[in-house]
Amino acid sequence: MKNTRLYHNPRCSKSRGTLELLQEKGIQPEVVLYLDNPPDAGALRSLLEMLDMPPRALLRTGEIEYAELGLADPGKSDDEIIEAMTTHPRLIERPIFVHNGRAVIGRPPENVLQIL
Fold this sequence. Notes:
With 116 residues, the chain is an alpha+beta fold. The protein contains four helices and four strands. The longest helix is centred in the N-terminal third of the chain and has 12 residues, at 13-24. It is globular.
């Protein structure tokens, strides 16, 4: 479907569940394997705008890079956080479903139904 995309990690159960739910609803999103093809800073800013959240809210705090890069430091700027996510895409929360200019994180997978 045009304008329908899923930022997906096939190793993640929530991501797989989200894709399965969408397919059950007859939706075949463009699947973006974001670990292989991470969004650049501009694309990430666009996603954050559609999600209506600050960069820090999209961080996966349990990843080793989070600690190594000192991302818990509240002094880190949005630009620094975005740069960390583009360089280390494992830091990006997943899955992100984009549909017609809106986006939602598929945690739980049923969240994607909000924007259909």
